[in-house]
Amino acid sequence: MPFLSSHNVLRAIGACATAVVATVAFAGTASARQAEMPVNALAPEITIEANLAVDAYDVYIESEGLVDYLVYAKHRIATARLAARQLGYDEFSMIDAWADASLEHQRAVLAAMTQVGVPYRTNAKAEGKAFDCSGLTAYAWEESGVDINRVSGDQIRAATKVDHDEASAGDLVHYPGHIMMYLGVDNAVVHSVNTGRTVEIDTISKSRANRVTFGNPLD
């Protein structure tokens, strides 16, 4: 039997623990899919859970303890579940997509989710105050410890291109003039939309769904 480091053992246990936490979270739920809700209807709940998840993530990364992982997984699952409910997506699919992403991708997604409802402003990258589209993606990945270019076109050019069906939650989604963050399921994204709107959980429009480029900032 190959030797497993304590870190790998912890990761294996953590994966099982995520499944247990998800099962408990859904106990008594009749359906994991519901109707799409008005834009950002769940923003207050989402930002609360995302902030709790970010704090718990940082504790877990420092300790690598199972109990800390369970706390983190609980809040990550709750955030993913709310995001799926916002869009009317299958909750299990969103939860699994986030759990399957790398830890860096998870941290980037959660950082973006803490900013849902923050106003759009051109050339802005100010936590809790304002973002433009590339400001949000730059902020989210910087929170994960990865510096990416501030310009949307440069962000996607520097990322490794991936197919839609291979993209992970946290990957970049780009069409000329705009960049978003993929949420790992179908066409779900989080992005800072445009003037007069906010950071929103959304879907890629049908007119652009076949023309967007997906990119992984880690590779």
Shape: globular
Number of domains: 1
Helix content: 40-55%
Q: Rg, please?
A: 17 Å
By CATH, the superfamily comes out as endopeptidase domain like (from Nostoc punctiforme)
CATH topology: endopeptidase fold (from Nostoc punctiforme)
SS class: alpha+beta
Q: What amount of the residues lies in strands?
A: 5-15%
How far the N terminus sits from the C terminus, by CA atoms, comes to 31 Å
Provide a compact summary of the structure:
With 219 residues, the chain is an alpha+beta fold. The protein has a single domain (7-25, 34-216), classed as endopeptidase domain like (from Nostoc punctiforme) (endopeptidase fold (from Nostoc punctiforme)).
Keywords summarizing the entry:
47% helix, endopeptidase fold (from Nostoc punctiforme), alpha+beta, six-stranded antiparallel sheet, 219 residues
Write the layout of secondary structure elements.
Elements: H1 6-25, H2 43-63, H3 66-87, H4 91-100, H5 103-113, E1 125-126, E2 130-131, H6 133-143, H7 152-158, E3 160-162, E4 172-175, E5 178-182, E6 188-192, E7 199-203, E8 213-216
Antiparallel strand pairs: 1-2, 3-8, 4-5, 4-8, 5-6, 6-7
Helix pairs in contact: 1-3, 2-3, 2-5, 3-4, 5-6
